[in-house]
Amino acid sequence: MTRFPLFLGAALAALTLTGPAFAQEVTLRLHQFLPIQGGVPENAIKPWIAKVEADSNGRIKIEHYPSMQLGGKPPSLYNQARDGVVDIIWTLPGYTPGRFPKTEAFELPFMVGDAESASVAFQEYMEANAMDEFSDTHPIAFHVHGPGWIHTNKPIHSLADIAGQKLRGPSRVITSLLEKLGATPIGMPVPAVPEALSKGVIDGAALPWEVTVPLKVAELVSSHTGFDDAPGLYTATFVLTMNKDSYNRLPDDLKAVIDANSGVEVAALFGRALGEGDVAGRRVAEARGNNIIVLDEAEKARWMQAAEPVVTEWLADMDKLGIDGQALIDSAKYFIAKNAK
After folding, report:
1. Is the pTM of this model over 0.90?
2. CA end-to-end span of the chain, whole Å?
3. Which CATH class is domain 149-234+285-339?
4. What is the Cα–Cα distance from 250 to 140, expressed in whole angstroms?
5. Which of 52, 58, 122, 140 has CB atoms 3.0–4.6 Å from 240's, for a disulfide?
6. Rounded distance, CA 98 to CA 75, Å?
7. Do domains 25-100+128-144+237-277 and 149-234+285-339 have the same CATH topology?
């Protein structure tokens, strides 16, 4: 029987390992600002990670770091992706005011209703109008949350009840809205809301129902005010995006996995998770016996009229930037109507 020298056997083994069976593996780090038990981390980010890993046959591994575990504040997340501090981030463009002006068309008051369909609309809107604002990263998906409500201890039954209340808003457009409604707006990222409520820094917060659960807002306030019929008071926009070098370093077949898990279907996944979270969040407040105040159509008309200057001022801001703001509003409304359920 012929015997191969040991070195020849090792060489053959090495050749085998460098063949198709030994495929490149990549580990990516995903960083975001919410606790792991939040609706988006649990019901959107985790399923997305699982699908990417499965579609890559385990060759892509994604480490998920919630609650800013890798350092920094939520407004730094986009730069972390841009600069390669991490590979993937999920955040609000509105955390860096004025940096992504074209995204703000969806944050204008009384634009959207259902989170899933509006998220698909936002993804399509971004692809048609605003990808240039994110050219220094590799966007995976854009989405929005469901209609925001105002969560306070002092009940808000009418526009007059907002006057003077210190209310948190997530972005410059929404803080402008709160000001026009009569509040004293205070901008802050969502993780800061519970402490600000408990210390009296703010009297209430503009939030979607979904995020009130991980923040335990229903334990910190007793009253919740909003509208049941679309469109809702406001929404905020979100992006899931990747460092360009992290994407470009991937072999073509793994780039294809990321590409297949990007776009409209991912936007719908995130929007659906937020919509389902809104239902759950409202039930928590109802179970505690909190005051759920649904404003009627007559009151809604008063709020819409009070909010009109937000749009006027935004259009003027866009004009100064050389952006056709009205065209963006028209495009946003087109995609929202196209995808409405």
Report:
1. yes
2. 74
3. alpha beta
4. 15
5. 140
6. 12
7. yes
Beta carbons within 8 Å of 202's beta carbon, 6+ residues apart: 166, 167, 168, 186, 188, 193, 196
Q: Can you give the pLDDT at residue 23? A: 67
Neighbouring C-beta atoms of residue 35, cutoff 10 Å: 15
33: buried, middle or exposed (CB in 10 Å: 19+, 13-18, 0-12)? Answer: buried
Closest to 164 measured CA to CA, from 186, 191, 147? 186
pLDDT digits (tens, 9 = 90+) for 16-66: 434 444 467 999 999 999 999 899 999 999 999 999 999 999 999 999 999
Q: Is 14 exposed, middle or buried (0-12, 13-18, 19+ CB in 10 A)?
A: exposed
Distance, CA of 269 to CA of 267 (rounded, Å) = 5
89 phi and psi angles, rounded to 5 deg: -135, 160
From CA 151, how far away is CA 179, in angstroms rounded? 16
Q: Which DSSP symbol is given to 110?
A: T
Domains of the chain: which residue ranges? Answer: 25-100+128-144+237-277, 149-234+285-339
Q: Which CATH number fits domain 25-100+128-144+237-277: 3.40.190.10, 3.40.50.740, 3.40.190.170, 3.40.30.10?
A: 3.40.190.170
SS3 288: coil
Q: What is the mean pLDDT of the chain?
A: 94
Rounded Cα–Cα distance for residues 129 and 337 (Å): 17
**Cα–Cα distance between 90 and 241 in angstroms, integer?**
7
Tell me how far apart the alpha carbons of residues 215 and 159 are, in angstroms, rounded to a whole number.
Answer: 26
